[in-house]
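cache lookup: miss for this entity combination. No prior model stored, computing from scratch. Input as submitted by user K.M.:
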Amino acid sequence: MDIEQPTPFRAFRDFRWDEVACLPYKEDGAAPFKAISRQVLFAEPQLGCEWRYFEMAAGGYSTLERHEHMHAVMILRGRGLCLVGETVRPVQAFDLVTIPSWTWHQFRATEGEPLGFLCMVNALRDRPQLPTEQDLAALKANPTIAAFLTQA
Amino acid sequence: MDIEQPTPFRAFRDFRWDEVACLPYKEDGAAPFKAISRQVLFAEPQLGCEWRYFEMAAGGYSTLERHEHMHAVMILRGRGLCLVGETVRPVQAFDLVTIPSWTWHQFRATEGEPLGFLCMVNALRDRPQLPTEQDLAALKANPTIAAFLTQA
């Protein structure tokens, strides 16, 4: 028996779960982000994937980044804005977001309330890439993206 | 570009999602179940996992089964009862359930309302095993499980 396996039933209470630690969003602070936490709900090796919950306080945002691996996302709490590639879209509870390979993406809690989302990801994945100054300039050439990136 | 990939944003409405088909629970009717549907939210090969949503109408239930692969579950809608191994537990929205390898499990919408849950599973997995008459007798030797198995 794998002693790493969680107990079968873990209750939910106010966007926390029994036995699940509320962690910093990233292990280091080299990438820009604001007011966001991470909870790892499932990470058993035999699943092949990890299932995490990220939550931003009002005004918070995830890192603007891209990578080879894809993300499968479901909004779980609140409302906000999401950038995927060239598109900025309002999102709200239970909406689905697919982040394809090598696509710039960011979530922002723009509506004066927390924004929380579930994210499923392959356990074997590459490290995220941050935008260079040139990448940022190219993104900001799109006025919708420029406005999104400066929203609090 | 993989034309199988869903569009980045798929909106939620009343426990259905844009572009997501509402399917029969199983492809064949050899296993017992009642009033339950399946929606596949994410199944891109590069994820390594599939992310599905199953929903039972009031009085419905999933198949009582076990298998080598594990399930990672989050209740998304309503309340009901869940059997995992020797334990029957009330579950409600956002609770987590871990189904370990070779563990009998079943969900039942016992509270006069629908019960819906998200289930993450490895894309490569074995077929479920149904209980034999002997397995059922052994399960029903536990009065709590016997009562659970006859609940509507």
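stored under new cache key. Chain B has two helices and twelve strands.
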